[in-house]
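Hi Y.,

Following your request, here is the sequence exactly as I used it, all 138 residues.
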Amino acid sequence: MKLNSNYFHDNPISQDGTYKVKVMVCKDGVTKNGNPKVAVKFKVLDGKETDSVFWDSFVMVPSALSRLFSFLTSINQPVGANCDIDSDAWIGQVLSVSGKTEVYNEKIGFRVESFSKSEVIPQGEATVVDELESEAFL
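Below is the corresponding structure, written out as C-alpha cells. Let me know if you'd prefer a different format.
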C-alpha cells in the first residue's frame, strides 16, 4: 500500500484498537488519476489516545464505495449510488473507528479498518474546533 503524507501526523495514535473519534476537517480534492476524493482529519475523543489525530481518505471509485458507504452509515448520512456527497456535513460527526498502527519512514500512521456508529456524546462534552486550528491542516 502506498502511503501519502496526510497519513502521518505529529500526534498519532500509537496503538491498534477501536477509538471514538470526531471528524475535524474535510478537504475535497482529486487523486493523481483524476478521481474525486475527500481527505478527512479525525481526532480521538477518549482513552489513552485522547487528542491524537490522523487523516484518512475516501476515493470515489467503484472499488472503494463499500468503505465510503460504511463510513457514511456510521455518521447517519445518506448512502446510495445517486446520493450527493456533502463532506461539509461530516464535520463534527462522532463515530467509532477500528484500525492498526503502521510505521513508514520512522513515522507512525493509523490505518482505519472499519467504521461504526458511536454513542452520542452528551452536550457540553464534545470538543469545539478552533477555526484557526482546522485551517492549519488544510
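Residues 1-7, 121-138 have pLDDT under 50 and may be disordered.

Thanks again,
Q.
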